[in-house]
Structure formats: structure tokens, C-alpha cells
Amino acid sequence: MMVKSFRLLVVFLLLQSSLIAAEVPKKPLILAVLPCTDILETFKKFHPLVQFLTQETGVNLQLVVPENLTRFEVSIHNGEIDLALQDPHTFLKLENSFDQESLLRALNAEGGTTQTGAVIVRKDSGIKKLSELKGKTVMFGPKISANKWLAARLLFKENGIDIDQDLKTYLNGGCCEDIAFNVYLKAVDAGVVCDHFGNEHGNKQKEMGIEADQLVVIGMTQKVPMKIMGARKGVDKEIIARIKQALLKLDRTTPEHEAILLPTELGGFCQYQDGDFTQVKAMMKGNWAE
């Protein structure tokens, strides 16, 4: 009788522990996106992608937008972020924190693996070339942007402009729309936007009252790699595999996936290869990332 009672007690305890485990929700995986715009807008842009990944993988994903690069770095080191979408120079600073097998390269809207920055001015400014920006005010992209900051600084240097010495002043702005708007309103003399800004944001420019034909490009940066998606070391390998498979499945030529990718300004993902960021590493040695 005692043996039977003991067995019943064991069964009861097992059932109770199962019920408790079922009631406790699994801790979500944290996906961080380093934004070039405000936090609310970034959430709107990437919410469809997070939904897609959750549906495809069954993994509970939560999107976070770090307030700045310092906060992002601290969160990575503390294990508070599991996945991250970031520009290459930011990734390279923290490369040892990421699982190399998890890495994917983002594609641009045309399916390519690179992007450039474009320096724009008002058509009526009288500024025709980069060297004429000496003594002027320039708005670059945020320091987390490879094309609007890292490559742009190098472009100015190649054209004889030390941004710390030769400009009246410079600022680090946010998204392309805001930078173009500041140029259009003559708040700054020039700005650096993504190469795809004119093509992909025509309607947005109209909504903001920007007459696109009043802005002209006077310089283009070198091509730099698109963003990289990766998981920090320690994230479950099986979960990483599922997420990678889902991301690689995205096809910008299908209406369903286009609706997911279009807000993010990405064209999908492809496999990461060693040596992809050799050029960016060379730029960083020149201190253009500071």
C-alpha cells in the first residue's frame, strides 16, 4: 500500500510540474534593430518581419530598438539581446560576440549586397561639387550608418575636406527623409542620404512637401556592404537554424514577402561569407568610424 501511495505521489508531482511549466511562458528571443530613424517608426517598419519570423519558426520574438550604440553594446555583452540587425562597421566592433554560423547579409531592394551614400544639396544653392562645401553645414546620417557616416566621411576626405576642420559645422541626423527635409528647408547646406532614397521615398517626399527636383546629388560614396543579421553566442543552434531558414525564404518578387520587406528597405537575405567586409575594415583603420 505504501509503495502504491508513493507511486501516486510521484505521478501527481510530475503532473503538477508539467502544468506549472506549461503555464510559464517561454522567455522571448530579443531581436535588436539599430535604427536610423525614431524608435516608433522603426517598430512600424520591422513589425511585419517579426510577425513573419514568429509564424514561420514558432519562436517568440520581441523587437527592441536600443536608444544608442553604447546601450546596444552593453546589452550584447550582458546577453540581453539575442539577435541583431546592424551595419557592418558596428558588427565588426562586436564580431567576437556573435555566432559565426548564424550570420546573414541583408540585400538591398534590387537584390544586391551593397549600398552607397549620396550627398545632396538644393539646386538653387550654387554648390556644384563637394569641394565647395568647405565652410558649409552638412548633415550626415547616424554614426551607426555605414554609407551615410563611415563611407561619407571618407568621401569628404578624398575631396580635400576634413569635416572637423573645414566645415562650418556638421550634424548626425536620422533617417533619409529628415536629412533631405533639412536640406530642402535650407537648415543645412548639404546632407547624406541612401542611394535609394529618391526612388523608394517619392510618395513620402510629396507628403512632407519636398519638391524632389529641387534636390540634386553632387557626390556618391564608395559601395559598402548592406546590414548583417546575426545571433550572439549562446543562442540555441536549432533556433538559429530555423530563423536563418525563414529569413532566406523571403523573396522580394512575391507580393506577400514584398509587403514584409518593403517597409524595412531591405530586399531579403543571403549567406555571409568570410572576407565580405574587408573594405569596411580598411575604412575603420582610417578612423572613419569614430
From TrEMBL:
Key words of the record: Signal
Pfam families: Phosphonate-bd
Keyword Signal: yes
SUPFAM superfamilies: Periplasmic binding protein-like II
Domain of life: Bacteria
Any coiled-coil regions, as ranges: none
Signal peptide residue numbers: 1-22
Keyword Signal appears in the UniProt entry: yes
Protein name, per record: Phosphate/phosphite/phosphonate ABC transporter substrate-binding protein
Organism field: Desulfobacca acetoxidans
